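Lab meeting minutes (informal)
Scribe: AK
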Amino acid sequence: MNNAPLFHSDGDSPAPRKVALAYSGGLDTSCIIPWLKERYGCEVIAVAADVGQPDDLSGVEAKALASGASRCHVLDLREEFVRDFAFPTLRAGAIYERKYLLGTSIARPLIAKEQVRIALLEGCDAVAHGCTGKGNDQVRFELTYQALAPELAVIAPWRSWEIRSREDAIAYAESRGIPVTASKAKIYSVDGNLWHLSHEGGALEDPWTEPPADAHDLSVTPEDAPDQPVYVVVGFEQGTPVSLDGRAVEPVALVRALNALGAAHGVGRVDLLENRLVGMKSRGVYETPGGTILSTAHRELEHLTLDKPTMRQKDALALTYADLVYNGQWFTALREALDAFVAKTQEPVTGEVRLKLYKGGCVAVGRRSPYGLYQEDLATFGADDVYRQSDAEGFIRLFGLGQKVAAARDRRVRREQEAETGVPR
């Protein structure tokens, strides 16, 4: 493995001296530390990000140092993740391919941004990640590097090293004295944070197979959820969630509370065959209980507070926003421009939504806002003094004028053709 040529970022520059590695503490990134040192003779700075994943990060610094890193920065990014990445995506209404609430996608640009910050702080001349050459995450990391620090060289070991399997990685780690707790039987590829938990691989690679019970770690099955529904009221200010049941709650605590509530009722399970950016379809099982509750509530509040053309345009641009996030294009002028549009649309999106959670379902059963556009005296089927029904006659006549003109033209053309051919049309 050590006979490969040294890395050159542009064909002429020397091998990197110091590399900042996006470090999770798992098997792959633990192997990358000695691999970088052996291949390039460089110093390695590990950067571990806490975005609310289920992994215990208490020993990650010690493990990084034991694996050969010079230093390890452990960053608590949970607040920033929810406030500046998850909530803006929620406000935009961005959902990838009808189902996916973008849990992994929104975390990667933040992790890469902070990795770049540490790399520049430490005087690194390169950054590295442990993403495979088949996945989307390599693109998300590297587009962020290019946007924020294009002068840094990029190293992606999975695209060049000889490790090809979990067994290879375990053998490599053991031969270098790297602490290993992983087993050779890895059923799923798992990713998690405050927003979601995902499973890929294993039995899920057959799209005909129902997801096994062990493909869900957050939520109960809807069948095992309580037999009585629970109600929760979510409050928003300009499209941002700010309260639960009338009580102000900070972003991280709010998401945690809704995750626990939704998971207990089987809410937020998604089984998706998605189109990866690299061109293949993959299957992912996602659990996003809190995000599902918030997305449902936010959408319902927009139904109450947004006018028709604004909501239509926002829905159209939400698809673009979702693609940008999924494709790793967070740090782009277009995403910033879309955020400006979203911010304007969210000015009236203030109020509360009451939701009913039951057996995997999440349904809005009440909504109210001081900026609501619904007027009962206009919509009522009872007697009213504000809507003159006779006005509808003129409106319909004008609204259908174009159709009426086109129909008259078609009748005239048919008559002329019948007169010429003698054949009824």
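Next up, CB showed the second protein from the same session:
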Amino acid sequence: MHFINSSLSILFIHETFGTMAGAEQNIFLTAGALKERGHHISILYQQRSGRDESSWESIFDHAIAVPMSGKWTVTREAQLLETLGIIKPDLFYIHKMPDLSLLRKILKIGRPVVRMVHDHDIYCMRGYRYHPLTRKICHRKTGLPCYFTCGAFIVRTRKRLFPLAFRSLSHKKDEIMLNQQVDKVFVVTNYMKEEFITQGFTPNKIEIFPPIPKTISNPPMPMFSQPTVLYIGQIIRGKGVDCLIKALALLKVPYQALIIGTGSHKTYCERLTKKLGIGDHVQFLGWVNHDQLASYYRDAILVAVPSVWPEPIATIGLEVMRYKLPVVGFNSGGIGDWLIDNVNGFLVNWMDIKAFSIAMETLLQDTELARSMGIKSFEIIQKLYDFESYIARMEDCFYTLVRSKQIDI
């Protein structure tokens, strides 16, 4: 039920301001849509990405940098109270935020708190829910096995002098306990909901809100004229770009592969293409502005999503489906929520590189099959992942929470 002629002051909290990855894209689209509906939108952040910041600044009424780590001090508390006095939020909408001290303060204010979860950071000490050496996916509740089976008390960092850091199990349990106190937890797939239930979260506090891309009413049909495989995303180990390259090396048909993105695993993957003798078939294009991706979608036969870590959802899948493209992906994490095997692409058994190659080869050889699966992708998006319905449902949830706290709006 909507409150007539009312608007909310919604305070987003996220560690990064500006375009970076899927979480930031979801924040940008959601915040913009809520602003168009008449709400007052602000954001607290820790750092800037350096990308598309002017677009972000046009959306948020207030964009204020705050520290999200370190000791909680009287000065920090005074800064927080001053900031909240300026914004006067009716509701806190927290995305990625590592500072438990800040979360404790927010929970004590008495306003509704919603946590949007984009990944496994809240309950996984490593943050990616799979073993770094074996790549085996974890389904355990956070506890002592995180130390003795996974060795998760030691994690890699990007610091040059000492590239390792130590993590505390008790700190992670505190984080889980604090997040159990928020009013709602938004997760992106059924897979993620089950993960939170495993950690002891109350099921009726969990709502599924996949990060739906903005609706395109009538996107152009891909040309399907060139045998092009497209990958878009971070090039880090969990994304499985090395597995994609190994699958490409098994192809027995002509192809070209375009890999868009950057990351710590890029150099390794570039060397792997040369080692496997497919360097002439694979191009690493680096980071590409989101608005420029449509031209690459138009020329592709399929999009590969070779993630081997348990993807919360893999937002690129929802993105490319609206451009009428089929997807080949591993059955990892929440990918199975939107990728239906033999309907809008092929959902391949986890880490089965040969089967992944066969699935890609099938689509490269049969462009009519690729076309029909691409159309089915678009139909699924229209039916199950409509952006306006997504925003309306979120807005109703926010209104209900504000009313439950008896806040006069």
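CB comment: The radius of gyration is 22 Å.
No objections, moving on.
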